[in-house]
Structures are given as C-alpha cells and as structure tokens.
C-alpha cells in the first residue's frame, strides 16, 4: 500500500481505464457502474471501498468487473480494496456519461437518451460530436463487434 492514499480523483481516472467485459469499448466509469469511492481505515491501514451497481441484478459480468477493478488498483499499489455491490437504486442508462455514449456510438451501438431530456437526439449528437472516446485505440483494436444486447440497439438495426 502506498505511504499515502492516492487522491480519489486519481483513482477515478485509473478506473476509467477498466473496460466493461461485455462492451469492451466503454469503461466501467463511463458506463456508470462505479458509483462511489471512499477511503476508510482498516486496522490502521487505508482501505478503498468501491461501490458498484451492475447494469442489472443478475449481470453475469459483475464478477469479472469486480476482478478487473481489484487488478487495476493492485497494479497501482492499492491492495486493500473492498468492492460493495449496491442494487438500489437500480442502474439506469441515465448514468452513462456523455463520453460513454460517444464510445458506444463509435462502436455501433445507439446509446439511449436521458429520460426526460429536453434536447432532441440530433441536438445531443451535435453537442458531443467533437469529443473523442477516451478508451485508447490500442485497447479497442482487438475488441470484437458484438450484436446488440438487452440494453442497447445497434445503430441502423431494428429493435
């Protein structure tokens, strides 16, 4: 464990590099799965508590996501990690970041709009059109194209 605990902003940045195993072009942060980070003390040592909310309560990828988070943090010297699963409130597509929506769009998945959003889809597209997906190209090159899942509809296909 580092002599001093890294700032939570730094930890968020590290976790923004952890890709979702089912849609490997979006990070677990941009997908909105990582909900909260907190440092606490555990027998005199700092412990990082990471709260995650899976996209649905029975999501089979949750175990892989937790493992990948622990691995990513361990590579940066944070070994005392507790992953807590929070099912309520339930995950919603409103938790997707704008960056995450961009990554999904570039991958060929039509991201949903925020519920109650007053902007049209076209206006939303124009507002974020110039942003670049932060998942590095090297990580995306080997990512297979996938058919639409239960959460999203691939662009140009009937839902």
Question: What features would you highlight for this structure?
Answer:
159 residues; alpha+beta; GMP Synthetase, Chain A, domain 3; 2 domains; 3-stranded mixed sheet; two-stranded antiparallel sheet; globular; disordered C terminus
What does it look like?
The chain is an alpha+beta fold and 159 residues long. The protein has 2 domains: 8-85, GMP Synthetase, Chain A, domain 3 (2-Layer Sandwich), CATH 3.30.300.130; 93-154, no CATH class. It contains 5 helices and 5 strands, in the order H-E-E-H-E-H-E-H-H-E. The protein has helices spanning 8-15, 62-74, 98-107, 121-128, 137-141, and strands at 34-42, 45-52, 81-85, 109-110, 153-154. The strands form 2 sheets. It has a 3-stranded mixed beta sheet with strand order 1-2-3, with helices on one face. It has a two-stranded antiparallel ribbon with strand order 4-5. A hairpin with a 2-residue loop joins strand 1 and strand 2 (45-52). It is globular and about 45 Å long. The N and C termini lie far apart (48 Å). The model is unreliable at 128-132 and 136-159 (pLDDT under 50).
Topology of this structure?
Blueprint: H1 8-15, E1 34-42, E2 45-52, H2 62-74, E3 81-85, H3 98-107, E4 109-110, H4 121-128, H5 137-141, E5 153-154
Parallel strand pairs: 2-3
Antiparallel strand pairs: 1-2, 4-5
């Amino acid at each position: 464990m580092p002599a001093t605990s890294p700032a939570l902003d730094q930890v968020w940045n590290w976790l923004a590099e952890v890709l979702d195993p089912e849609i490997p072009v979006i990070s677990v942060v941009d997908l909105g799965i990582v909900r909260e980070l907190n440092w606490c003390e555990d027998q005199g040592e700092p412990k990082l508590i990471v709260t995650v909310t899976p996209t649905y309560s029975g999501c089979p990828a949750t175990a892989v996501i937790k493992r990948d988070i622990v691995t990513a943090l361990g590579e940066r010297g944070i070994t005392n990690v507790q992953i807590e699963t929070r099912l309520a409130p339930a995950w919603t597509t409103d938790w997707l970041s704008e960056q995450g929506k961009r990554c999904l769009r570039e991958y060929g998945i039509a991201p949903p709009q925020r519920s109650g959003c007053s902007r049209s889809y076209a206006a939303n597209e124009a507002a974020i059109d110039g942003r670049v997906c932060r998942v590095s190209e090297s990580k995306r090159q080997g990512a297979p194209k996938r058919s639409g899942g239960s959460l999203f509809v691939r662009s140009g296909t009937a839902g």
